[in-house]
Amino acid sequence: MPSISLCMIVRNEEKSLGRCLSSVAQAVDEIIIIDTGSTDRTIEIARSYTNRIESFEWIDDFAAARNYAFSHATMDYILWLDADDILTPLDLRALLALKRTLASNVDSVSMYYDLAFDEYGKVTSRLRRNRLVKRERNYRWIGAVHEYLEVFGNIMPSDIAVTHQPDEQDSDSNRNLSIYEKRLARGERFSPRDLYYYANELKDHGRYEAAIRYYEQFLGTGKGWIEDNVAACAKLADCYSELEESRLMVDSLLRSFYYDHPRPEFCCRLGFYFLQQNEPKTAAYWYRLAAEADKPEQDWGFASMTCTTWLPHLQLCVCYDRLGKYDEANHHNELAARYRPEDPRIISNREYLQNRISRKGEGGVLLG
Fold first, then answer.
1. Which spans are transmembrane here (predicted)?
2. 294 falls within a domain
């Protein structure tokens, strides 16, 4: 059975570190904590789980810190997590099972990264990350900010999920933006990936015009990863929406089709736009595309589970109600109910539509 080193970089994580380590400790053979300057109880908490604690002088470079953490690993494989990640009991059992059966020729195991949940606890946003990597391959982290692990070889996909549980408030929300702007001030030339992530930071800080400029620079290089290209179109649409430039917002959504087939998230956004324009027939077209879309096999980019399950059906219910097609509206409301049977909107729609179909009642269905 292969052995596993857990490698983490931390700073002021007293609220979450214990939760993270307790969720995974049973599955790993050593825990390596690299502290980058904590002033709270982070190190004290880490000592409850390991004596492998090292300090790393923070140099505004996440890849450097993670590579330093990896350099201290001694086991067959390396698992990496952030302090605000956990393994649920179900996923811990799955990791333990994987550990017992993992073939020695596997270089990396990818896992889901579950980022957001609805009020019923169902995943609404997820992607994939290479999480468990063979130490002897000497894989390296790349990128000072929004770093990535450059992995190659025999990569095995798994159904194990790491769950992201961030604290309510990020105490250092300006950190990444500050790092990028220091690099710009030094005259550094950004890679396409840096242009994309710098634009994201600008957008997240409400600097929409500047974000638009950098998204355009990124897409203009023609060298972006397909998932970043598609995401940049969505984020451009977000910026134009904030600036109340609806036509440019729609143009940005349609622009994504240049890089890949119509994604469900984009179809739902186009459907919502046309529904707002009181064009239910056109809206229904886009929602049908979303509802009928094939689910991605790997989910390496951000995937909205909402737009591939109940939402397009609930919105199709709205569209067909407005078109006076109550049987079709009812059909899609019931399809939505398969995913959210307790949703009060769906329950209300059911009663309304049954009355409509029997030529009784007034009102309207409720939007998603």
1. none
2. no
pTM (2 d.p.):
0.91
CATH number at residue 22: 3.90.550.10
Q: Please give the residue range of the domain that contains residue 64.
A: 4-164
Q: Judging by beta carbons within 10 Å of its beta carbon (0-12, 13-18, 19+), is residue 143 exposed, middle or buried?
A: middle
Could you give the number of structural domains in the chain?
Answer: 1
pLDDT per residue as tens digits for the range 304-354: 899 999 999 999 999 999 999 999 999 999 999 999 999 999 999 999 999
* 112 part of a folded domain: yes
Domain contains 238: no
